[in-house]
Design brief:
Layout lengths: L1 H22 L2 E9 L10 E4 L2 E7 L5 E6 L3 E8 L7 E7 L5 E8 L21 E5 H4 L19 E2 L8 E2 L8 E4 L2 E2 L17 E7 L14 E6 L8 E7 L2 E11 L2 E10 L1 H4 L2 E4 L2 E20 L2 E18 L4 H5 L5 E21 L2 E18 L3 E21 L2 E22 L15 E25 L2 E12 L4 E13 L4 E12 L3 H4 L11 E13 L4 E18 L7 E18 L5 E16 L4 E4 L6 E10 L4 E10 L3 E2 L2 E7 L5 E5 L5 E2 L3 E13 L4 E8 L8 E5 L8 E4 L5 E8 L1
Parallel strand pairs: 1-7, 11-14
Antiparallel strand pairs: 1-4, 2-3, 2-5, 5-6, 8-13, 9-10, 11-12, 13-14, 15-16, 15-44, 16-17, 17-19, 18-19, 19-20, 20-21, 21-22, 22-23, 23-24, 24-25, 25-26, 26-27, 27-28, 28-29, 29-30, 30-31, 31-32, 32-33, 32-34, 34-35, 35-40, 36-39, 37-38, 40-41, 41-44, 42-43
């Protein structure tokens, strides 16, 4: 009995401080923030000096609460992994001030990542590559633009100097883009800079083949960008200045359930350097601007409303002198060439959790696009498009092993055309298209274009390690009055815990370009372009840091559009093609000091002119393409990154001589077979250094880039002169260095 009583006393002595704290009116509460950007620090340990029993951890918003047994003087100690040293703060509690609220800023030796857990917006694994924002913002040669990382992925060819991707044998115009599942008409500025603020891009999914049926009708690829949500802890912002432009970002909460951000940017390089003159052609430095905004309202646990808006504008001007080679070969280009391109999108998104196993997303929006070009004596083009769209996607789990997605989309567009221009009706199948002798065509027209689609997909896990993905898409558009029903199939085999095997097949279609189907200029009786995608893949996780993925694909194309010398039709569906290849991606996650990836592509892409039987390489065919990305933390504040790019020479069509003259006396060039020539191999090395300066209430990021570090002369074409008696290489225009400053508060 004595032993039992002794044990009870010991237990009461142990529990007594806990009971005292529970009833105590004295408490120390507050929030722990990271120095520099004042982001909340979850998981920081908050304790009282000399009293290990009184300690706690901050929650996901950085908040903590400590109840103490009595009034008095206390020393609060805050520490966590990644902090330079523990923070100490003295407080005094008495009857007048029984509770103290603290705001503690912890000095960290590195910026801690903001972790936000989000659901995967498309669980399909076939033909998909995911890159996160934090691993692509500091890629060398990108000038802080995350979407330039597209150039470094397997299967993506470099389309000139831009970032618009040419994927697996398709061209840049064969892709479709989404941001937060909202259709985006304009994703890249002239020169390939993306229209979105780099700090807003959370990640992107690139679907290179056999993508889900609820994505739009294209034969190339889908780029699905996710923009992050506004911060909810406090008001903050960023100001960025780099070599070519400046931008700002402001964001913060309205109340507990509502938050917003707004970002805007404008280039100023055109203000510093007015123009660049080369071979009698004066380029007025292009300027661009863009903006993005989001307002998020968490109505309740099951409903969320989002208002999203964005816009972008580009302006370009060339002055072509009569003495220039370009002016001598194309006299109708002598003078001023101006182009302005702008686009804007506004949308409301209602995200509704209808049941525990079902979710519905409704998107209603409008989009406006305008392109206005004055091409010297060759004519003028003005195209205005105003669209209204509705998208709905309902995803539910009728059974534990079935994941079903039903989707419907509708879009009504009013297209205004005011065209007066020389119509060359050139395509990838034509050579020797002379602008100055082309037929002048005028068209003033207003077109109402309606398109809609419905789709269904079922992810059926019919065995613990096997998932079958079956889907179908039915679409219709009223201009060419074409309807298509297309299946999409996929199979995923989780061979081991770390190895996934995938297979997919899909049938796709795409509307020809506006010029090719417009009255007078094109053929309103064309068929849609068709494409079949087949893909096999394997991915393997070596450990939590290293992984690799390999895919092989085969794509066929039919009904490709060919320009013909028949003014009654101008274009016909007279081409076909195929592309195939093998891709490898080896990746190290950005957890330790060294991270990056190696992308290798071995591919072939060709086209066939079914009217003549001629077979030739596709203009973006790159049989060997290698990109090596590295990022290394030299210290807690310095980071170094490199990007090495190599691809075998792109095809081009050589000029072999002349044959007679045009009516104005110009020589008529003679071309070799389409894309029968090969440019020299392309390769370059870009190097980037980042330095972070952290202060108590703000942070400064500085970067410096060296582009084409070993000054390799990359040839992108040839100048044959007005008499076609020379062959001078034209080298890629590369700004040898770049820099940027970003202040964050």
């Amino acid at each position: 009995m004595r032993k039992i009583i002794f044990n009870i006393i010991i237990i009461l002595l142990i529990l007594q401080p806990m009971f005292a704290r529970a009833d105590s009116p004295y408490a120390i509460r507050g929030v722990v923030l990271e120095n520099g950007n004042r982001q909340p620090l979850p998981g920081a340990q908050v304790a009282l000096q000399d009293n290990d029993a009184l300690s706690t951890l901050t929650d996901e918003n950085g908040y903590f609460s400590l109840e103490v047994p009595s009034a008095g003087s206390y020393t609060v100690i805050v520490s966590m992994l990644g902090a330079e040293k523990p923070l100490q703060q003295k407080v005094m509690l008495d009857e007048k001030i029984p509770v103290v609220q603290l705001k503690l800023v912890l000095q960290t030796t590195l910026q801690l990542p903001v972790v936000e857990i989000t659901a995967e917006r498309n669980p399909n694994k076939v033909g998909k590559t995911i890159l996160k924002g934090e691993e692509i913002r500091k890629i060398a040669g990108s000038s802080g633009d995350p979407l330039r990382a597209l150039q470094s992925l397997p299967g993506v060819a470099i389309a000139g100097n831009g970032s618009a991707p040419a994927v697996r044998g398709s061209g840049p115009g064969d892709n479709f883009y989404y941001a937060d599942e909202i259709p985006v008409g304009k994703l890249f500025h002239f020169g390939g800079i993306s229209v979105f603020n780099g700090d807003l891009i959370e990640d992107f999914n690139l679907y290179s083949a056999a993508f889900a049926p609820y994505y739009d009708n294209v034969t190339g690829a889908i780029l699905d960008v996710r923009l992050r949500n506004p911060r909810t802890d406090r008001f903050g912002g960023k100001v960025n200045v780099n070599l070519t432009g400046a931008d700002f970002l402001l964001e913060g909460p309205v109340n507990e359930n509502q938050s917003w951000y707004f970002a805007a940017r404008r280039s100023y390089f055109d203000l510093l350097i007015k123009s660049i003159q080369r071979n009698g052609v004066t380029l007025q430095i292009p300027n661009y601007s863009d903006y993005q905004g989001k307002y998020l309202w968490k109505v309740n646990d099951d409903n969320r409303l989002m208002f999203s808006f964005n816009g972008a504008m580009d302006s370009l001007r060339l002055d072509v002198d009569a003495s220039s080679d370009l002016g001598k070969t194309q006299p109708d280009l002598i003078g001023t060439i101006e182009s302005q391109d702008s686009g804007a999108t506004q949308a409301v998104v209602w995200d509704n959790k209808t049941t525990e196993h079902a979710n519905n997303k409704l998107i209603v929006g409008t989009r406006q696009n305008r392109n206005q070009s004055n091409i010297a004596a060759a004519g003028n083009v003005q195209v205005d498009v105003k669209s209204t769209f509705v998208r709905e996607k309902f995803r539910f789990l009728p059974q534990e092993n079935h994941d079903v997605t039903l989707s419907t989309n509708a879009q009504s567009s009013d297209v205004g055309l005011n065209l007066d221009i020389n119509n060359t009706n050139c395509t990838q199948f034509n050579t020797g298209c002379d602008l100055s002798t082309a037929t002048r065509v005028q068209l003033v027209d207003s077109i109402n274009f309606l398109q809609w689609d419905v789709s269904a997909q079922d992810r059926w896990r019919f065995q613990p390690d096997f998932t079958f993905v079956g889907g179908v898409r039915h679409s219709y558009e009223n201009y060419l009055q074409k309807a298509y029903t297309e299946p999409r199939l996929g199979l995923e085999w989780q061979y081991t815990d770390k190895t996934l095997l995938t297979a997919g097949w899909g049938r796709h279609n795409q509307l020809p370009s506006q010029q090719q189907i417009a009255r007078n200029f094109g053929n309103p009786n064309l068929e849609h372009i068709r494409s079949d995608h087949s893909v096999l893949g394997v991915s393997h996780m070596l450990d939590e840091l290293w992984s690799w993925k390999a895919e092989t694909y085969y794509k066929t194309f039919s009904n490709l559009v060919v320009g013909v010398k028949d003014p009654a039709v101008n274009y016909v569906n007279g081409g076909s093609g195929r592309s195939y290849g093998m891709e490898l991606l080896i990746k190290k996650e950005p957890i330790e000091d060294l991270s990056g990836w190696l992308a290798v592509t071995l591919a072939r892409s060709e086209r066939v002119n079914d009217l003549t039987g001629e077979t030739f390489r596709f203009q973006y065919d790159e049989p060997v393409n290698v990109t090596w990305i590295t990022q290394y933390k030299l210290s807690q504040v310095w980071t170094m990154g490199t990007k090495w790019t190599y691809h075998s020479g792109a095809p081009y069509t050589p000029i072999t001589g002349t044959n007679g003259t045009y009516s104005d006396g110009r020589l008529i060039p003679v071309y070799a077979a389409v894309n029968s020539g090969t440019l020299p191999e392309y390769h370059r090395l870009d190097i980037r250094f980042d330095r972070t300066y952290q202060f108590e209430t703000w942070k400064l990021n500085v970067y410096y880039e060296i582009n084409n570090a070993y000054f390799h002369h990359n040839v992108v074409g040839y100048n044959y002169g007005p008499n076609y008696d020379k062959k001078e290489p034209i080298e890629a225009l590369v700004i040898p260095f770049s820099f940027g400053l970003q202040g964050e508060f």
